[in-house]
């Protein structure tokens, strides 16, 4: 089966490349930009893709890596064929993690454990982009790299602010283009309806109407609309040179610009040139920017790589850790609104031994927070090799296990000492604490970047005493978004602590893409009590549960996202049953086979065949079972 899947994968990639080669760049870029742009419609509804961002950028990578040889029209049928091939390709990568029907009964327990960890980590890494708002990335870019601008400029000709100024200018330009397009759409509609009304009143024939329209305002409005559509997401070099100096522009083209030429890019597991170079040169003067958000992500990644490979690397790593600690303290301080005591960089001994990042004292509660700023490495595709790398990163000096061990050490120190004394780096006593003064001590493992499923479900890899509750692990982006939403919805610090308590009790059963899906459910219903009553191996949280955070974000930024609906609950599944059904050969239809390995979109047709959307059918209560029907 593995060899068959590989053959099918190669065939599908070949078919996709052949279609791409026969279509001009501009129509392909327009389609992709339409999917990626925010126009009040869900990105999942614009194209039948399970991971639209990653799949569109994989497609972009193939476009700029394969020269155009023909100029066929990219109609709806051909675009649908492209989307189907993208789905099939991602499906086949997923299915490679599942055992064959013949191997299923003989697999050792070690294989199951490795696959349970490596499969979701691999799929999350390659299917999910950076889940953070642009403003968060801009702020981190400023905080991390401004102190190293001299080094960056010397090595690249770019500084932190010069890269961000270009991003801000791109964003403003494209926003103006979208606003202008909206105005021209309205004007075209008014003119068109006016012409049709006049046509009906005068009783013109078709040939007369064609003659009359030549001098009607509708012709001008339609022409302006057409020009606006053609220039959407396009920025000319002339505009760039008029706004920025020549050296900066040349540096930008060199680092972030790409042309459609033969490149060694074919698989989703390869380094994607479209992610690193998201400015596409479509001719000698025009640059296409289909996703301005990716430009700021590419700039961040480039600055990070540059400074980490420079002689300032050690200084940067120290600065980065300290900044994550400082930012985390700011986030908690804003949420608790002065009702807590926050201690940063404290030591158990006056000789600066056993340092701890953050200690928060709130009423009769203590939050112990340890920070790890190193990002996880790319996982291998082979489950066994991937598991080894994932486990090593998780349990290394910069991993979540080390953060938990530090939390546990401090917790035990507080409980065993009476009082426990904390010192600053100069050996000065800054706090005495007695265990009698506190009812609960919480452990929080905070990372700068997401660790995916191994952070969401720590039971997969974390070593801890049986009697100890699971700590809470979260990345800094999600922490900021989560606590901002808790505050926005009037949830007090007591509600947040209750979230941590309930989260720990159900910790082993939660399966999600990120913490915001879990927190989104809690914000909807105020607790996890309805889940505690259910018997299930896992509760699978779907991406729409995090829509509440987008709703808050866009409202605060003067825009309106999709109307938020409180109508979604986690799907209740038994993981072993799911795998048994996948490998049992029940499905005969390959399209249904794909549905078994990904989340079903809420607006997709229900797999049961009723003809209804999933959210109005089995999606209401999550009762659809893979292999049913």
* Helix proportion: 40-55%
Q: Say how many strands there are.
A: 14
**Shape by Cα distribution:** globular
| Main sheet properties | 5 strands, mixed
If you compute it from the alpha carbons, what radius of gyration comes out, rounded to the nearest whole angstrom?
27 Å
Quaternary state reads single chain
- Structural class, from helix and strand content? alpha/beta
User: Which runs of at least 5 residues are low in confidence (pLDDT < 50)?
Assistant: 560-566, 585-599, 607-612, 620-629
Query: Ends: how far apart?
Result: 24 Å
Largest sheet strand order: 5-6-7-10-11
Strand content: 5-15%
What count of helical segments does DSSP give? 26
If you average the pLDDT, what whole number results? 84
How are the elements arranged and paired?
Blueprint: H1 2-21, H2 25-36, H3 43-46, H4 52-65, H5 76-95, H6 109-127, H7 134-145, H8 149-156, H9 160-202, H10 206-212, H11 217-231, E1 234-236, H12 237-243, H13 246-256, E2 257-258, H14 273-276, E3 279-281, E4 286-288, H15 292-308, H16 313-336, E5 341-347, E6 355-362, E7 365-372, H17 383-395, H18 400-416, E8 420-423, E9 429-433, E10 440-447, H19 453-456, E11 472-475, H20 476-488, H21 493-505, E12 510-511, H22 515-525, H23 529-532, E13 538-540, H24 547-556, E14 571-573, H25 575-583, H26 590-595
Parallel strand pairs: 2-3, 7-10, 10-11, 12-13
Antiparallel strand pairs: 1-4, 3-4, 5-6, 6-7, 8-9, 13-14
Description:
It contains 26 helices and 14 strands. The chain is an alpha/beta fold and 629 residues long. The strands form four sheets. A five-stranded mixed beta sheet has the order 5-6-7-10-11. Strands 1-4-3-2 form a four-stranded mixed beta sheet. Strands 12-13-14 form a three-stranded mixed beta sheet. Strand 6 (355-362) and strand 7 (365-372) form a beta hairpin. The protein is globular. Residues 560-566, 585-599, 607-612 and 620-629 have low confidence and may be disordered.
């Amino acid at each position: 089966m593995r060899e068959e899947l590989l053959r099918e994968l190669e065939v599908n990639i070949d078919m996709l490349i052949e279609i791409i080669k026969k279509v001009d760049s501009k129509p392909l870029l327009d389609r992709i930009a339409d999917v990626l742009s925010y126009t009040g419609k869900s990105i999942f509804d614009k194209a039948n893709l399970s991971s639209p961002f990653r799949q569109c950028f994989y497609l972009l990578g193939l476009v700029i890596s394969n020269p155009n040889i023909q100029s066929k029209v990219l109609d709806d049928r051909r675009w649908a064929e492209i989307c189907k091939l993208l789905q099939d390709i991602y499906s086949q990568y997923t299915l490679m993690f599942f055992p064959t029907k013949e191997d299923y009964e003989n697999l050792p327990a070690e294989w199951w454990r490795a696959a349970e960890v490596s499969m979701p980590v691999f799929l999350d890494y390659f299917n999910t982009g950076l889940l953070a708002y642009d403003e968060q990335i801009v702020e981190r870019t400023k905080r991390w790299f401004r102190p190293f601008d001299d080094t960056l400029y010397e090595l690249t000709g770019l500084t932190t602010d010069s890269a961000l100024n270009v991003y801000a200018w791109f964003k403003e330009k494209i926003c103006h283009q979208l606003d202008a397009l909206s105005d021209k759409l309205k004007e075209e509609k008014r003119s068109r309806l006016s012409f049709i009304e006049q046509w009906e009143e005068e009783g013109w024939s078709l040939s007369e109407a064609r003659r009359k329209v030549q001098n009607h305002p509708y012709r001008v409005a339609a022409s302006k609309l057409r020009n606006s559509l053609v220039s959407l997401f396009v920025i000319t070099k002339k505009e760039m040179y008029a706004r920025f100096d020549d050296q900066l522009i040349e540096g930008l083209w060199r680092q972030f610009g790409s042309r459609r030429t033969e490149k060694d890019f074919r698989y989703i597991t390869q380094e994607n040139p479209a992610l690193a170079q998201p400015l596409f040169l479509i001719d000698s003067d025009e640059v296409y920017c289909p996703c301005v958000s990716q430009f700021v992500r590419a700039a961040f990644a480039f600055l990070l790589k540059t400074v980490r490979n420079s002689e300032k690397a050690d200084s940067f790593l120290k600065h980065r850790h300290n900044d994550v600690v400082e930012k985390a303290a700011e986030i908690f301080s804003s949420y608790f609104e002065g009702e807590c005591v926050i201690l940063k960089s404290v030591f158990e001994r006056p000789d600066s031994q056993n340092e701890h990042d953050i200690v928060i004292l709130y009423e009769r509660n203590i939050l112990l927070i340890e920070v790890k700023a190193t990002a996880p490495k790319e996982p291998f595709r082979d489950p066994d090799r991937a598991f080894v790398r994932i486990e090593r990163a998780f349990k290394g000096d910069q991993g979540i296990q080390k953060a938990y061990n530090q939390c546990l050490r401090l917790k035990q120190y507080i409980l065993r000492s009476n009082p426990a004394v904390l010192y600053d780096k100069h050996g000065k006593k800054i706090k005495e604490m007695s265990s009698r003064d506190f009812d609960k001590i919480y452990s929080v493992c905070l990372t700068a970047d997401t660790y995916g499923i191994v952070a969401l479900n720590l039971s997969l890899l974390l070593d801890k005493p049986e009697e100890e509750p699971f700590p809470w692990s979260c990345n800094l982006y999600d922490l900021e978004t989560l606590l901002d939403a808790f505050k926005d919805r009037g949830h007090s610090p007591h509600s947040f602590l209750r979230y941590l308590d309930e989260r720990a009790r159900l910790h082993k059963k939660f399966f999600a893409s990120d913490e915001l899906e879990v927190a989104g459910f809690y914000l909807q219903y105020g607790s996890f009590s309805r889940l505690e009553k259910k018997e299930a191996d896992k509760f699978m949280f779907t991406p729409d549960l995090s829509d509440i955070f987008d709703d808050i974000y866009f409202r605060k930024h003067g825009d309106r996202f999709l109307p938020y609906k409180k109508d979604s609950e986690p799907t209740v599944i038994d993981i072993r049953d799911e795998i048994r059904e996948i490998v049992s050969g029940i499905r005969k239809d390959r399209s249904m086979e794909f549905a078994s390995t990904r989340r079903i979109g809420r607006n997709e047709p229900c797999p049961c065949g009723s003809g209804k959307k999933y959210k109005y059918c089995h999606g209401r209560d999550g009762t659809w079972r893979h292999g049913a029907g």
